[in-house]
Design brief:
Elements (H helix, E strand, L loop, with lengths): L20 H15 L6 H6 L5 H12 L5 H8 L1
Helix pairs in contact: 1-4
Amino acid sequence: MIDWCEIDTVLLDMDGTLLDTETIYVGSMFAGLEEMGFHLSEPMIHSMIGLPGAQCFALLKAEFGDRFDREAFMPVYV
């Protein structure tokens, strides 16, 4: 159990402030899509940064149609 009285500092990191996670996100997206035989432009991938996952998957489905399978994508993306 956490003793909240013992906590002196809480650090909140806005995405990209302390760690450049956007670079990791973009690289993972490229690699996962390429592994599945899809290509997405870098500007399109960057446009998805910060969007909720469901909205990103809707964009991918709109771009690639029924060939894009979210369940097959997750293991190669993560």
